[in-house]
## 1
Amino acid sequence: MTEMHPVTARVTRRIIERSRAARSDYLRRMDAARDAGVARAKLSCANWAHAFAGQTVADKLTMMGGKAPNLGIVTAYNDMLSAHQPFETFPTVIRAAARELGATAQVAGGVPAMCDGVTQGRPGMELSLFSRDVIAMSTGVALTHDAFDAALCLGVCDKIVPGLFMGALAFGHLPVGVAPAGPMPSGIPNAEKARVRAEYAQGKVDRQTLLESEVASYHSPGTCTFYGTANSNQMMMEIAGLHLPSTAFVHPETGLREALTAASARRAIELARAGEGRMADVIDEKAVVNMIVALLATGGSTNHAIHLVAMARSAGVLIDWTDMDELSSVTPLLARVYPNGTADVNAFQAAGGVAFVTRALALAGYIHSDVRTVAGEGIYHYFREPVMQDGQLVWVDGVTETLDPDILRPASEPFDREGGLRLVQGNLGRAVIKVSAVKPEHRIVEAPAIVFETQEAFLEAFKAGELERDFVAVMRFQGPRANGMPELHSLSPGLSVLQDRGFKVALVTDGRMSGASGKTPAAIHVSPEALAGGPLARVRDGDLIRLNAETGELSVTPQDGDFDSRPLATPGKVQAWGLGRELFGVFRTAVGSAEEGASVCFTADYGQGQEDHVETNVVDHTVDA
């Protein structure tokens, strides 16, 4: 067995110790559910008859026998999300695969699946993060019928996979798999799309030109091809052992994709019959560390600094940003995929894909190899990739050497000696910054603050030419309690343009940025948020902000007076209604902080046993770790 990297080993031990009580309680509950026996056997005749009244005659006869496994499908299908449109036909494929094994499968329920690409810059984005917890709850509602021996979750995109993951862990006594739909074929290059967006922001091209560019980029069923939150989800589901190996980036509507979907169903049923592979055992502290490292090694989405905390907590595993920062300090950056490079996920897959990354990380000791997966014991299953041979699905060894060193590299020759995520902290609180796409010369910014409370105010100032100078945009009252913590992707083109003009600019916010954002330094998810009394509420125009991603500093020097004695600013008029926002008032009241996962799904004792956050925990990235 490969010797673990000492930092990976140390962080894992700390997480295990911190999580001891929460993890033990979770496993106790899952053991009790398992020991209660097969779910459908506990249903009365009337209950069970209701459960399969709408099935075919053949399936009814199978289910009346009471011995065949019944697979519950939780689907995020809709045909508004290109990534989820292919799921329309998946249940038919899954039912047929189940019947081949003398089992049955049913759609247990659907979950909402909103598209961040549609809601960017719109009021609906204020529901985006909260939708993750709604999805988790909806998954719980679907599976609470207690009529299933295993579950298969169909989801790809940003909040959907974390929500399915969280909800399914409440049923972790069952085997649970995740079946993706795959990316769309490549459209126009991502760099070209970014160029047109920047020109539109400057008024150099019209809206029709922008629309034609966007249509050429987002053009068919499948996941968007940049490496944002959705494709980061897919990487993590692979490394966590919930996908079958190397299924993430196979295109939809192909024979291979359909074969993989059927195989996922068959595997879930096989595990149920064998009494193996329950999700509670697959997702443990080591699996969570592997997910973090895979995210870091590929320059994945900053949204997972929030999602991973909530996902892990659902399994009784307690992590924080210090853990992520320490792992990032030693995790080699193995991939350059847009926005951290010019290639898309299709090129990444062609260069070696997930199998190459998994092999490289495992053999170098950055991830744990002794894990359970739906494919079997050990991470080595994920060194393989699927192919069709003579009409049959088989797995073969993935490539051992990169096929394109501009996209993928081995651990011995990485693009960077560390991962793309860093913790910054100081008298403005704690935040994260993604540096994998930020050039070194832009990673330290010290400039006067310009305070904004809405994206619209920033865009008005930009269009009026009022931002032609060095500054740090402080965008506050964008946290989960304030307005649901929307992504602030509308800021990216303007900040990018100003940086390209030679100004030193940065963003500091208690909100989120899109997984597609990249080259401008942004300290995001600042905790505590302004509405909860966080220091951002004391910042005034002209205060000197220092953001140093190299040393992990996020601080303010006030232009006058004592910073801590200043009164807290209050947000201007907040519109908490319209487009469904009024339905989520209780979420804004009950939600936890960003570093706690920004969730309403956990009780007040969420952080019990977590270490205090002290400034000495931050890793200085200017020296070798």
## 2
Amino acid sequence: MKHMNSEVKEERTSNKKRIDLFLVPIVLIAAFLNLFKIWTDEYANAYYTAAVKSMLQSFHNFFYASFDPGGYVTIDKPPLVFWIQTISAKIFGFHGWSVILPQALAGIGSVLLLYVLVKRTFGVWAGRFAALAMALTPIVPAVSRTNNIDSMLVFTLLVATWMLFRAVRTAKFGWVLAAFAMIGVAFNMKMLQAYMVLPAFYVFYVVATKITWKKKIAFLTTATALMLAVSVSWAVVVDSTSADKRPYMGSSQTNSVLELAFGYNGINRLTGNTSVTGSSHKQPAQTQQQTASSETKQNSNSSADSSQSSNQRKSSSSQKMQASGGGNQNGMFNTGNPGPFRLFQKGLSDQISWLLPFVIFSIVGLFAGVKFKGSYTTKQKESLFWLAWLLPVAVFFSIAGFFHQYYLIMLAPPIAAFAGAGAVALWSMYKQRNGWKSWLLPGGILTTAALQVYIMSPYVSSIGVAPIAGVGALGVILALVLAVRKQRKNLLTNYLGAAAMVVLLAMPAYWAMTPIIYGGNSMLPAAGPDSSSGMGGPPSTATNSKQSGFNGMQPPGSSSGNSSSNNQMQPPSGSSNGGQMQMPGGSSNNGQMQPPSGSSNSGQMQMPGGLSNNSQMPNSSSSKSSSLKRKSGGMNAEVNQKLLNYLTKNNTGEKYLFATTDSTSAAPYIIKTGKPVMAMGGFSGSDPILTVSKLKAMIKKGEVKYFYLSGMGKGGQSDVITWIKENSKEIPSSKWQSTSSSAQQGPSGNGTLYEITLK
């Protein structure tokens, strides 16, 4: 009891101390990286932003996280983060920056929490360096500058970690319950991804608490039960509600939250089974693309722009870009190929792995001399916690069949913690000339610099040779000088050690700023000189080092006026795939994407929903636009005003402004007008929500009259779409299509507008 009281008193005394002045610039750096220019992202991730717009309109939409104001279908994630975003939009007004703000603040909060967690045990300098490493990990600000969930998820898990550490220090069971309940809260942000930290929580509590095994088992069992109850609380309420009284659960096949949680958003991430029908990830890319979730579809949109371009240069006749469904050398969606060294492959290494060699050396130093039997120090126990977080997550990303680059933010806390704790520990061993351990510091510096040169080498065309050579040369020189000066203790040696840390953080700092410098992508956050494309891969994968992203997209019915095929991607045309990648709707590309039959757009790629592509990086001739407001993470997602005017004028009381195959076509109109737009097949267009009989009933009730079909995203809706075409009147394109090449930009490209009226 005396020990417990002394711990509490010590913490209270520590909290009353003056603010750490060294922490202030670190927090300011994090604030700059997370907040600066978020106001330029007008739509952010349009899929989620449309949901916030809908959730602002009624409590029914708010509770279920409805994608559309009509309550037809939900988004494909739990609602908690979007509740927070909606509250932010309610307070500050509906803007792109107001839905991004909670995640940006969470990114800053994670930096502060890591400082607190590391400082208490490993010392103030360890806390400072850990906080700085967290702030400068490139994927952290890249994700935090968007309305995606992961930044808030990591912050919540760090709050749970703080609670767990406090539970061990104070020996209070209530804090154990709170820590595991917080993981349950995180589950309601991104489902099973929150459980990736559970090995660390279990191992640490078992090792660190000085209570009987009987109590450990009882406490952990109770805490786990509470975590599970909190986790499924919203899911049980939703799944218990009659289907006709709530929206369809988006991206599920059985209209169930639990199926979504433990299937597609759970185990299927590991197996790579991205098909909602349960078929293998190895099946033809058509099915994969048809059935992808919001993140999959967004990624396919972005990755198609650049990941196959290295082969284009070999084709002097057309340079049409190939689609990257997953068979290219960089693996699916530029996440590398599964294997033990996957985190060191391009596409992933530049997002998270800059300090991994130093972390490995730090782990060796921190665990040197540890005996399996015997008591452990507090430092060793907490090092074990971070190791039990790092290893399972690293293994998952090394073998997983399907994930996106920005998921790697889950690795940022343990890497940053080991970087901070290890820097202090290795420096102490070095200064004390502690045998072989004294070589860990120069060895860590040398190998880390070598990896950073490797990471940067594919980007030589965009960042130049100087920074790559500089990091390599300085890393080698400083490591060698420190090795030579091991026997000397003077001020110069201290300066050399500090200089080495600066060198190792220099390029991660630059990479962390790339979303500000080059523009970010709110749909597929990734850092790097091509960050606006959402690819996070080297510029060598683009047609040239300045081409990437998706600017100049076509709105519904607008004609591009550009017949050139050079450097353009073209959408599917509708035949069998012949083993080639297909976009939603199913069509053959034979290595290249072709325009849909009947399309007036010859030479620009039509993305799902009809997005056209005419892309350039901000450092190209279109760089002036980087200072303007971006729509949907680099995608210009405004509506076609002529189409909107026609639909509004001819609406005779129908609930839905119009219906379309998928959410990409619907989102901009929801954001612009706040009116219901029906995404018949959910996000990817493949959810089995609608049947012909249901659609007939809706039309007879006067709920929907107009249908915009772009030939993309059919998925499992083929019967419905066929019936629409056979029983509708085609609206002449002159009444709603924009023919100007300078028309407002937005999704849904060249398609056909139909009207159905049943008596």
